[in-house]
Amino acid sequence: MPRINSLEVKSSTSTLSSSSSSTSILRALSLAVAFGAVFLQFFINPFIPTPTPPNLRSSPTSPTRLVASDIFGCQSTSAAEKSVRSDIVCPRTGHEEIFLRERSLLSWSGEEALDVASPEKQSGKEASETGPPPSATKKPRAASHNPDVISPGSLTSSESISLFEYTSKITAQQTLDSGMSLVEKATEIAGELEYSPEQNDGRDMTMIPTYVTSVPNGTEKGVYLAVDLGGTNFRVCSVVLNGDTTFDLTQSKVAIPKALMVSDSHSLFSFLAKQVADFVETHHSDHFSEDPEHHLRLGFTFSFPVDQKAINKGYLIRWTKGFDIPDAIGKDVCALLQNEIDALGLPVKVAALVNDTVGTLMARSYTSPGKTGTLLGAIFGTGTNGAYVEKLDRITKMTSASAKDVGEYDTSTGEMVVNTEWGSFDNAVNVLPDSPYDRLLDQNSVNPGIQMFEKRVSGMFLGEILRNAILSMKQDVGLFATSTIAEDSVLNTPWSIDTSLLSYIEADSTEDFSVTKEQLQKDLGISASTISDDEARAAKILVHAIGKRSARLSAVPIAAIVIATGKLSPPAQAPIDDLGLKDLSLVGQGIEILRRAIGGRSPADLSADAPLPDIQDEEPIDIGVDGSVVEFYPGFEEYVREALRDVPEFGEKGEKRIRMGVAKDGSGVGAALIALVAKMQYSQ
C-alpha cells in the first residue's frame, strides 16, 4: 500500500513490468508446475481417512465445503444449501488456494490425534471389547450450520463429562497395562498437541473491509486524538506526531459507571463526550486559543460489533461485555458521539471508526524503520486477530457489480486494509489440531463452536488447555498423587490458570525444576515439597507442547497473507493478464498455463536464460505485532519463524525477510493515525 506523507496521499497506479515476455512465461510455467502439483495432491488423495467411531449420533450428511471467500462476495455454504441456492457461484480465489496450501501447518503427525477417544486408536483392540457409551463418541468435524451434524458444543455438560471420563478411563487402563511413566504419559499428550506438515482439506475465514486506504510512513506531523471504548473503561489520549517516526502520547482513563452501561444512548455518549472535553481543556487549551477554527481529528476505537459503511460511519449490531442499551442498536456510533461533542461546542471531529488490530498495523507502519511499509498488523495476546493491506480490485465484496450496501471510500490508492477476524478460522475444526483437552475447553466456553483458532492460540485459553491436560494425567497416571489438592483449588476451577504460569514454566532451565515447582505451588496451591522431579518434568512437557503449538499455529495466517499478497513473488505480474488468465484463481492460472504449455499453445517463446530475482535480495516484509503472548512468552517468535521455514514457499530465505516489530497501543496511537488517514481522504 502506498504510504502517505504529511502533505498528501500518494496515488497508487498500476505499472506494467518492463520484464520481457519470455521471462513472464518462464515465471508462469514455474507457477503452473507448483500449482499443478498442489492440484494433483488435492484431487488424487485429498483426504486422510478417519475411521468412524461406534454409535455415532449423527446421520450421514452431504459433504460440506468451507470457503475463505467472504471478502470476495460469497458466503460459506454446505452442499445441501447449494442445491437450493444454485444462483450462488463461489469460484476459488487466490486467498482460498493460499489457505489450502497452508494446510500443511494445520495437521497432525502420524495417526490423527482427533481419534484419541476411539478405542481402536487408543489400544489397537476392536471397539467391541470396550464399547463406549453413546455419549462418549468422537464429534464429527463438520460445519456447525448443518443441523444433521453434532456441532461443537452441542453435547450437554453431563455428556461432555462422560466423554472426558470415558476417554480418561481407557487411557488409564492402557497406561496401567503398559507401565507408562509420568514423563512418558506427558510426552504422549504433548504428541496429541503437536502437528507437522500433513495435508487436510477445509478453510473458513471472515474478511472485513475497513475503508482505511492508506498507511503512514513516519514523516507525518500534527496532533490527533483517540478514544477507546473497549469495555468497562474509557480512555482518551492525544498523539503528537513528530515527523521522524516518533510520537508523544498523553492519556487519561476513567471507569464507565455501571448504571450507564444499561441506560440509554444519550446518557452514555454524553458521558463520553464530557471526558473528551475535560481532556482537551486540560491538555490542549493553548492549541485552540492559537487557532479557534481548528478542529482536532479523533479516531474512535469502538470494540463492539458494527456494520461499517465508511471510514467514519458504523452502525451498532449488538452490545457485548455487559452493555445493554437497546436504543443504540442500528445507529451510527460515530454520529452518536459527534452529536454529543457538538452539543458541548467542542472543536473535535470524529474522523474514523477504528478496529484495534488495524490500529496495530498503522502504529507499526509509522514507527517501522526504512522505506518498506507494513503489510500486516497482528494481535497475539488475550485474543488473536490480524489486519493486512490488500489490493482493492481483489476485494470484490467492495468492487464487484453485485456488491451491496458498500459505503464511500477512497479509490485513489488502489488498496485497502482488511480485517481478517482470523480468530474464527476453521470453526468446523476441519484442519485445526484437536484433542480431548481442546474439545472440553470449547464445550465449557461461553461461545462453543466459534473462535476455534483463537481457542488454540491466544492467552485467554492456553491455561485452560493446561488445566484439562493436568487433570487428565492426575486421573490417568496419578500426577500429583502425593499432594493434597482441595476440591475448590485453582486446579479444579475452570478458567483459573493464567498464561503467565506457562511462561514461567517454559523459561525454567534449572536441573531440578525448582522454578516449575515454585510456580505450581504459587499458582495451583500444590506444595513444592510434594512435587517430584518427574511430576515437574511432566508439567513442563505439557507446557512446552501447548506453547509451541500456539506459536506454530500463529505462523499460519502470517504465511498465508504474505503468500497471498505476492510479497514473496517477483514483482512483475502484469504478463499474466496478457495470457487471458486474470479472471482465474491462482491454481486455475497454473493449471491452464501448464495445459497450454504441454499442448504447445504457449503464446510466446520461453527464454531459458531469464533469471528470477533472488528472494533474499528483496525488501523486508514488515509485520507489526502486539499482545502479551508474542511479547512475553519465551521462544514464541522463534517457534513462529521455525514454522515459517517449514512452508515451502518461504524456506529459510523467505523467513529471513520477515521483520517483526512490536507495535504498542493500536487502540490509541493507531486510532490517532487512522484519524490522520481520514483527514487526508477528506482533503481530497
Automatic annotation (TrEMBL):
**Do you know which PROSITE patterns this protein is assigned to?**
HEXOKINASE_1, HEXOKINASE_2
Keyword ATP-binding in the entry? The reply is yes
Pathway(s) per entry: Carbohydrate degradation; glycolysis; D-glyceraldehyde 3-phosphate and glycerone phosphate from D-glucose: step 1/4
Which molecular-function annotations from GO does this UniProt entry contain?
Answer: ATP binding; D-glucose binding; fructokinase activity; glucokinase activity
Which Pfam families has this protein been placed in?
Hexokinase_1, Hexokinase_2
Describe the location of the Hexokinase N-terminal domain by residue ranges: 188-366
Question: Which E.C. number(s) belong to this protein?
Answer: 2.7.1.2
- The EC category is transferase
InterPro entries (UniProt xref): ATPase_NBD, Hexokinase, Hexokinase_BS, Hexokinase_C, Hexokinase_N
- What is the similarity comment for this entry? Belongs to the hexokinase family.
Write down what this protein is called: glucokinase
Organism, as annotated: Tuber aestivum (summer truffle)
